[in-house]
Amino acid sequence: MGIFKRLRDLTAATINDLLDKAEDPVKMLNQFLRDMEEDIVEAESAVAKQIAIEKKFQQQYLEAEEMVQKREEQALKALEQGNEDLARRALQDKKEHQARYDELKRQYDIAKANADKLRDQLGEMKDEFTKMKNKRELLVARAEAAKAQKQINQAISGFGVDNGAKGFSRMEEKVLQMEAEAQASGELVSKNRSLDDELEKLNKNDGVDDELAALRAKLAEKKQS
């Protein structure tokens, strides 16, 4: 029957294949379960109808069976009372009820077999639904774990080569450049200061030259006298 189609189609392999194509496996799993629940409700309705048919045939064939027994008893009683014509008519009616009983019993057996088959299929659907429901919990946990791992992997793959790391590298180069400029500036200041010191020394007179000149003059005067 068509109502059991998904029971055959929604195997674990089919679900896994569909999950590979799903953007959100959790949503897809929930949708699968909802579909299966709808199928189960539909199947339960079909089983209930088939059981009703089975019960109807059962009631009818039991009534026909009862009439067969009743007409036989009535025919026997009529015969005991010497009323063979009434006994014959009772047996004729019994024959009709017997034919009706045979047909109703046959229909009942068919209806019962169908009902039993549908009951078994419904049981399989419910078992499959329970398995898929339990598997959903595992798949959801695996999906969440995979999602978390993917996020971590993406973060790790970008760590050290993203803009932040590149920014650190640029700042390091800038600091090195600033240090070099500072060092060059210091050397230039040092050179300028050395030149200024030497030139300043030229202008400095500590008095030694003056004293030396005075001694020379004094010595020259002593030689003349």
UniProtKB/TrEMBL annotation:
Report the coiled-coil segments.
Answer: 26-135, 185-225
UniProt keyword Protein transport, yes or no: no
Record keyword Disulfide bond present: no
Alphabetical UniProt keywords: Coiled coil
Q: Which InterPro entries match?
A: PspA_VIPP1
Alphabetized PANTHER family for the sequence:
MEMBRANE-ASSOCIATED PROTEIN VIPP1, CHLOROPLASTIC, PHAGE SHOCK PROTEIN A
Family named by the database record = Belongs to the PspA/Vipp/IM30 family.
Q: What is this protein called?
A: PspA/IM30 family protein
Q: Which organism is it from?
A: Paenibacillus chartarius
